[in-house]
Amino acid sequence: APLHSQRGMGMSSNEPPIDEPPVEKTAEEIATELARLKAQRLNSIARKIRKARSAITFKLLAIADLLAGAKDELRVYGEDGVEDVKRSHATLRSFVNNEGMLPRDEFKTFDRLSSITAEERELLTEQGSGFSVLKSIVDDAGLRNDVIKRMRANIVMDAAAVRRVRLQRKLAAETPLQAFLRVNPHFAVIESRKETRAATKSFEKDAA
Questions:
Q1: How far apart are CA 114 and CA 187, in angstroms?
Q2: Residue 125 scores a pLDDT above 60
Q3: Are residues 73 and 91 in contact, defined by beta-carbon separation less than 8 angstroms?
Q4: Is 186 helix (H, G, I), strand (E, B) or coil?
Q5: CA neighbor of 89 nearest in space, from 70, 66, 106, 102
Q6: Mean pLDDT of 57-64
Q7: 76 vs 85, 95, 125, 142, CA distance in Å?
Q8: Which of 103, 114, 170, 187 would bridge with 68, disulfide CB 3.0–4.6 Å?
């Protein structure tokens, strides 16, 4: 066979296959793909937000632990060897305000957060509870128990939810007279008058 024909045959056997032209997607397919990518990005953002909130809660509780440690270091004792609780507290407050740069109006909350139990810490951290939630429950054991109970049931307890629970507890503790005056506030003025106090007490006793 002629040389040029052999070369031609050899070249044709080594040529790469011809790529198929890309299949163009329809507008609907493109929109679906864009929506999927958008959902992925938003899910990633949501996860990062939840993780950041949990980290914030962890840090807030860590500040409370640091205050507890500083409290042990800054105890003030009198000449009789007995701790001067008032001076110890004042010394701790001055230290964390001036050296730790902790706002004065937040000291009381952080000072009491050390009473939060390990299980409560875990639930609060998991939900990413903010400072307002921690502040609301730290001084009210009953409210804290109700909030933690709901968290155990996987109910999200943000500041608004905590306020609703507090209101429910307040309404549940109302006497019949208090409930009446809440619904009819204009009678509160009358109730406050000395000459009607006996009558309102009698009403409350009968209603109970």
A1: 44
A2: yes
A3: no
A4: coil
A5: 70
A6: 95
A7: 7, 13, 34, 33
A8: 114
Two tokens at 17? 């296959």
Q: Quick one: how far is CA 125 from the chain centroid?
A: 7
- Across the range 173-192, mean pLDDT stands at 71
pTM for the full predicted model: 0.69
The C-alpha atoms of residue 68 and residue 132 are separated, in whole angstroms, by: 20
27-33 long-range contacts, Cβ below 8 Å, gap at least 24?
A: none
**Residue 61 CB neighbours (<10 A):** 20
Predicted confidence at residue 177, as pLDDT, reads 72
Rg of the chain, C-alpha, whole Å: 34
> DSSP per residue over 18-33, as a string?
PPPPPPPPPHHHHHHH
Residue 54 token pair:
């949990």
Q: Which two tokens stand for residue 29?
A: 């397919």
| Six-digit token string for 66 | 């640091």
